[in-house]
Amino acid sequence: MPRNNRTGYRTRRVASATSGPDQSTPNRGPARQAGLRGDVRIIGGEWRGRKLHFPQTGAVRPTPDRVRETVFNWLQFELAGRRCLDLFAGSGALGVEALSRGAAHAAFVESDPASARAIQATLRTLGCERGRVECQDAFAYLRRPAPEPFDVVFLDPPYGEDCLPRVCDALEQGGWLAPAAWIYLEDPAERGAPRLPAGWALMRSKRAGDVGYHLARRGAPAQNDENNRGGA
Question: Which is it for strands 150-155 and 177-188: parallel, antiparallel or unpaired?
Answer without folding.
Answer: parallel
